[in-house]
Fold this protein.
Amino acid sequence: MPTPTIPPPDHLTEATITINGVDLYTRTVGEGPDVVVLHGGPGAHHDYLLPHFDALAHQRRLRYYDQRGGGRSPVERDVPVGWQEHVEDLGTLLDAWGLRFATILGYSWGSLLTLLFASRHPERIERLALVSTAPASAEGRKAFADAFAERSNAPAIAQAREALRSSGVREKNPEAYKQRLFELSVAGYFADPANAKHLTPFRVTGRTQNAVWSSLGDYDLRDDLKRLDVPTLMIHGRHDPIPLWTAEETADALGAELVIFDHSGHVPYVEEFERFRDTLDRFLPKSA
């Protein structure tokens, strides 16, 4: 499964916007109706959604940003990076972009951030697209953590990890070693672990990740979501370590259309790219 050939996006602009006392890196591609893209993590950055997500920039404008405390939006250690700050940043960015009503495309934690924002500011939402949505409750998140740990320690992955350690590649070719180590660290997210090599490498800032989950505590959004009335499309891989039942719960609460990708894990934009692109293209707004 090679990485698809995606032409470089048109109308690419990059900027740093200072809001709420932090500098946020932003990247905008395409022209047309706006779609705000929220990456996963927490504490990651938008790069690992590329180049696949850029294929959606035809007849629409995608607005990416690195959330506070990750990627090219680093912050000092005394700057708060809990979920409340992320929600506030999103609202302030929408204002800065002149978006009174927003279409938001969230991935993984980015989908949960979308739901946290939407449940508090439903008047700002036009429509939602949620991919590999993080669970709407702490109960679901624990089920995910258990499933991912089991997958990451599966015999085939454990054996590949040991083979890498004893291969001597670390000394002979540090970059190849680093790449393979990354692949093995994310292999549990895929229906076919071999597909991990097609994911753009990324890193997570641990302090931000821990601060977000700590700030959420024993969270449960399921009742809040029932009060939302927003057109919503959800995509979820049947083999995602985030259990399918959590996506079904979220979809039921939202009255969302749930599209299950039978050959994908947590990264359907890699494992079933064409279906991913086509499914979102029919739902997201675009120019005539």
